[in-house]
Amino acid sequence: MSSLENSCWSCSCPSTSESNLPSSGTNWLASKAAEMMSIISSVLSSAYGSLHSVRTANLIRRGLVLFTVGVFLALVLNLLQIQRNVTLFPEEVMSTLFSSAWWIPPCCGTAAAVVGLLYPCLDSHLGEPHKFKREWASVMRCIAVFVGINHASVKLNIDNSVQLSLTLAALSLGLWWTFDRSRSGFGLGVTTAFLATVITQLLVYNGVYQYTSPDFLYVRSWLPCIFFSGGVTVGNIGRQLAMGGVEKPHMD
Q: Where are the transmembrane segments (predicted)?
């Protein structure tokens, strides 16, 4: 009888080591899960930091390219206008590089960088990625047309300023229609033209430089058309740089 009782007690009462086994296994799993979560979070943090640094470096690189393009176009186009006596600077300014004011190239380069970086950002914000003629050949043709519009502004022998302004406005809209056709491009081009014209008005009003035969508040009436076409051109360059040089078939 005593042996049977001892057997019952031995079956119904597990040992202390056996009762602690599930608890120790749970603790082990919890520690391993916490370790894995720590590893995953560190990997994700490292990947995010690397991606952020890559994006920052890409943004700086695109800004420098756009700044260089803006400086080059400013030097060439301003030299053209000075040679045609469209823009007049004081005599002490004429001795600077390429017969141009020293502050014009960096200002134009900065404006080109800002506008060129805004175009792809605005496309992404509006959810309308620009896919029309996304190729470098189209961008180069757009630059050539923009230079041609600037050349026409000083070469066309049209006595009526209204006719000249309408002609250049048609050419600028043709440039936008041929190489852009996006609402964001048109809106940002108009904004760029307005702000640039206001700044030019203030500079001319304060005697920094002047235009010959001004017909619209100290400046030429066709100036907004030049700024509009320039904004569209720089925007296309910025969009193409944002693609990382990947060629895409254009949509006609």
A: 63-82, 102-122, 186-205, 217-238
pTM of the model: 0.68
DSSP-derived letter for residue 96 is S
- C-alpha–C-alpha distance, residues 39 and 37, integer Å: 5
pLDDT digits (tens, 9 = 90+) for 124-183: 777 666 666 678 888 999 999 998 888 887 777 666 778 888 888 999 999 999 998 888
Q: Other C-beta atoms within 10 Å of 124: how many?
A: 13
The two structure tokens encoding residue 245:
């040089």
Provide the pLDDT for residue 160.
74
Question: In the prediction, which pLDDT does 52 show?
Answer: 56
Q: Are 175 and 229 in contact (CB under 8 A)?
A: yes
> How many Å apart are CA 171 and CA 195, to the nearest integer?
20
Residue pair 200/219 in contact by the 8 Å Cβ criterion: yes
Q: How far is CA 201 from the centre of its chain?
A: 26
Name every residue whose Cβ is closer than 8 Å to that of residue 84 and which is 6 or more positions away in sequence: 154, 155
Provide the 10 A C-beta neighbour count for residue 223.
Answer: 20
- pLDDT at site 184: 85
The pLDDT of residue 25 = 61
**Contact of 86 with 154, CB cutoff 8 Å:** yes
Residue (of 112, 242, 109, 239) closest to 185 by Cα position: 239
Place of tokens 């056709």: 181
- Assign 191 to helix, strand or coil: helix
Q: Are 215 and 161 in contact (CB under 8 A)?
A: yes
